[in-house]
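Our preliminary data section would be incomplete without showing what the modeling component actually yields. Below, a chain of 239 amino acids is followed by its predicted structure, encoded as tokens that our downstream tools consume directly.
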Amino acid sequence: MNDLLKPVIAAHGGLERWNAFETVSATIVSGGDLWGTKGLAADDNLRRVTAKTHEEWMTVTPYGAPDYVMTFVPNRVVIRDGNNATIADRENPRAAFDGHGLDTHWDSLHRAYFSGYALWTYLTTPFLLAMPGVTVEEVAPWNEDGETWRVLRATFPPDIATHSPVQEFYFGPDFLLRRHDYQVDVSDALPAAQYVYDMVEVQGIRFPRQRRAHPRGADLRPDRDRLLVWIDLADFELR
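Predicted structure:
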């Protein structure tokens, strides 16, 4: 394992502890400017999200209606009602973004795919960096907020659906996550810098309770006047 990834994993609870669980769940509320540019309404409804810890799978409920459940895997998204009847589904959902620009509108299945891979990535960070096929290297450190943050650049294999194949994860002197940079490839490769706040320890694993994503400039600085996506998380549970 990479020399930086080892203490990072340990600071967030350790791989042995993480491997004891099969799922992680949280209650979320979210919003931000991105949804409006995609022609989607944002709301302050609470949703329950559950991710598998060792494979890419995610559920979100409610999703569009009080009894609807969205299930995501990389090659399919499906929305079902309370009787488990399929309301809508899409195979090979990544292909549905071909040719999209920053302002191209999304339907509910576009949003399902984006939300599915994004939330799975967030709930499993940094442990996903130790998954088979993911390679990491330490790159130049970054100075921000009076701290020096060490940076891991991760390259993801094609079978992991995520924002972009190459992403950067920034860690403070305590080895806890501070920031996560990526390109939103499903939206014209929009560069983003996502900051995390308010770490909480649950069942021995540490999670941020706030995430704030801003557009990122060529100088790697965030445009803090614009908030692409915000997510507040609570009631974490590992099973």
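The chain has a mean pLDDT of 97. Residues 108-124 form the longest helix (17 residues). Preliminary results of this kind motivate Aim 1 of the renewal.
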